[in-house]
Amino acid sequence: MAYSLVVNGQMHTVDTPSEMPLLWVLRDSLHMKGTKFGCGIGQCGACTVQLDGAAVRSCQTPMSTVGAKKVVTIEGLSADGSHPLQRAWQELDVPQCGYCQAGQLLTAAALLVKIANPTDAQIDTAMNGNVCRCGTYLRIKEAIHLAANGGRRA
Amino acid sequence: MKVAKTAQLDRRSFLQVTALAGGGVVIGMYVPALAQQGGGPPAQSEWSLAPSTYITVHPDNTFTIIAKNPETGQGIRAALPQIIADEFDVDWSQVKIQQADLHPKYGPQSEGGSRAIPVNYDPMRQIGAGGRLMMLTAAAQTWNVPAGELTTGSGVVTHASSGRTATYASLSARVAAMPAPTVEAVKATYKDPKNFKIIGKPIKGVDNAAIVTGKPAFSIDVEPPGTLFAVFEKCPVFGGKAVSANLDEVKRLPGVKHAFIVDAVAGRGNNFLTSGVAIVADGWWQANNARRTLKVTWDEGPVATQSSVGYAAQAKQLSAQASQPPVAGAPGTALIGDAEAAFKSAAKVVEAEYVFPLLSHAPLEPQNSTAHYTTDGKLEIWSCSQIPALQNPALGAGIDPSQVTMHLVRAGGGFGRRLTSDYDIEVGKIARVVTEERTKAGLPSVPVKLLWSREDDLAHDQYRPSGFHFFKAGLDASGKLVAFRDFVASANSVVPANEFPRGFVANFSVSSAPITPFDIPTGALRAPGTNGVSFVMQSFIDEIAVAAGKDPLQYRLDLLASPVGEAAAAFNASRARGVLEAVRDMSGWNTRSSLPKGTGKGVAFQYAHAGYVAYVVEAAVGADKRININKAWVAIDIGRQIVNPSESTNLVQGAFVEAMSHMMAWEITIDKGRVVQRNFNNYQPTRMAQVPSSIEVKFLQTDFDPTGLGEPALPPAIPAITNAIFAATGVRIRSVPLNTAGYGWV
């Protein structure tokens, strides 16, 4: 059926089954490839997007539940890659394969809106649902601190 | 890019120089030169002698440098171009990186065995230094001055005494008309490593900006216009075949365009086409969703009777043969001295059984491949294989490999999984059938993207083989190791016939007997020779040290200092001692007795893929078997040059994190011939909160040729953790993963 949804501030209309997950609407209907498929059961976090500011697993978000909620994906985290987290990720050379990093960034961005300067423990809790198979966790954590610190190294 | 003319295609030379229309020059290398140096076959042919394009000098004095190898997250897309750029003497900011397609003119293009740096380090230097030498020669001719008076930097040649400068771009036309220098002349101009400006510097990942902004960077993101999406349902039992399926019902589902049975086709090694059912739809979710309706009648075949429980029971039975010495000289065995006799006269005997399971690789990007089969019988494919080969999609499509064009696309992790290219074979077949069915319907051909689900990935891997090890060691009255025996009940397992302590104990015996039938496909996972063997060998050595009443780290050092025979070829005991001593000093090993109760430090070292690595781990274990790794230290010797310290440190820390998954949670079990684990919910990767606050990495940079890192960094991390658990609790860990014994992370 036809749905209107707002992705990164832009209105789109799609015709999809109501149970189709947002992940596949983004990837295959809107051809926005930044949001990644990793497990399809909400275990890995690669598909994380924000719905009205909350980090959610888009593979577990049927179209019927999106409604008027504003969707933010990695393509819309900033207009030009200048979000403090995007800058910190590059400054610290976080990625290995890089496949999980879009999801990591969306979860981290939601965290920093809630807690401007999170502790290690708060970061661990918030990031628990995002797997990095390459194991870049130490740099992810450092990059979150760096961004929270206004880009200044602690 | 328009190539105007080939000026000096001197086939005796190793460099190729080609002028570009509109200015600029392309500098490449003949593949035989690269192949001969890399140990690969000299694939000399007209095709392989096509101009490679390692360096393109653009008219604006910027440079495009080719990244020849597949990138799976190991950072090679930066590392190899770094070597060229530094010797060429340009600034990294002047360089644009371009991924090479698969082509024989680039020589071997693969990711595996930690071989990229050892194979390519010198050839990449030759290309860069060769280009620089030609620029120097061209400037010397232009100005009629001795080349020795000229210097380079930032892509400019300078004659200091006359104040003249020339950009590389301005010298291009002259360079293109010059004969290429000899390899010897080029090598004589290599930079002194202390003058490196790009090699050895923390150059950032080439695709970082694309990754953090969500640009299509990965194989899964490839979607040429008109692409249809495919799933491929295979029999859950290995070797099973699709007999029939409700294809008509599936084809009526919304969005589904094609559904057909694919028959098995034999191939080479793990690269064969498996029988199954393909479903092709407008979107991947529609194709995958159709599997809920799909009903397949399978011929499960003989493997359906096999199980992990059965393999283990058979291993136990086979262990009765452990005391039979191997036939002298039999392959895959070791027989040095007489271990059985030595056990009889030993003051102390230690025996232990160790086991580690099958593992799946589980790279985060599920297997996928995109191919377009056109009605002229050609196929274009975008692949994330670690060993990309035209033969694979050609096998699937039933065409000659010469009809395939292959693009290399960034992979979301490899870890050895993509050494096998089953997805490339499958997409070749599916793309051809789709095009043929569309042609019959009067429709134009379209590309097809095959994407596996995570469940497909865990169920259809080539698994890291399990290991069943039955050890016995003999010590003399002073605690010295006098005899060492390992018997392996093998399910395609690694048999450690050349492992330490071979060469450092007078009597050393390793043998094996096969578990049969065993028909689970196995393959290489990161550090295939040692990723499990290091756990069992370095744990049992730890047990021996404890039985001897010795410091486990010092016991290893003492053994390494007393060779009594031939060790494995190329094993250098002083380098092994070097990493052990370094990690001892980094980690405060000698003050570990002051650690609180329930906290301990463990050590392990491993020689793997030409590298030497030693870890110390500090772990705390609660009464409830909750484990916290407080900190890890690792000393690494992979030779004199770390090409990219940022990526290298990242790789090592990641290897430790992967080792934590192996140790705690990863196990593939077989029941009725199929994999039990379905998804990450029962194959849990390590998560952030479980990782220690610090994984301290030190590279020793000894005076040996640079070797690879991705693999050697992994294996000894596992026994270092389990040895730390022993130090903390007195409980010896002889089986992984630990969650099956009630352990978990804090």
Strand percentage of chain A: 5-15%
Shape of chain B: globular
Helix-strand category of chain A: alpha+beta
Strand line-up in the sheet with most strands of chain B = 12-15-10-22-19-20-21
Tell me roughly what share of residues is in helical segments of chain A. Answer: 25-40%
The poorly predicted ranges of chain A are: none
Strand tally of chain A: 5
| Main sheet makeup of chain A | 5 strands, mixed
The 3D shape of chain A can be described as globular
What would you report as the Rg of chain A, rounded to the nearest angstrom? 15 Å
Number of helices of chain B: 18
The largest interface is: A-B, 60 and 64 residues
Please, could you describe this protein's structure?
- By secondary structure, chain A is an alpha+beta fold.
- Chain A is 32% helix and 15% strand.
- The termini of chain A are far apart.
- Chain A has a five-stranded mixed beta sheet, with helices on both faces.
- Chain A has helices at residues 22-29, 84-91, 101-114, 120-127, 137-148, and strands spanning 2-7, 10-15, 48-51, 54-57, 70-72.
- The relative contact order of chain B is 0.11.
- With 746 residues, chain B is an alpha+beta fold.
- The radius of gyration of chain B is 28 Å and the shape is globular.
- In chain B, helix 1 (31-38) packs across helix 3 (116-143).
- Chain B is built from 18 helices and 32 strands.
- At the A-B interface, helix 1, helix 2, helix 3, helix 4 and helix 5 of A face helix 6 and helix 17 of B.
Distinctive features:
heterodimer, A: alpha+beta, five-stranded mixed beta sheet, 5 strands, B: 746 residues, seven-stranded mixed beta sheet, six-stranded mixed beta sheet
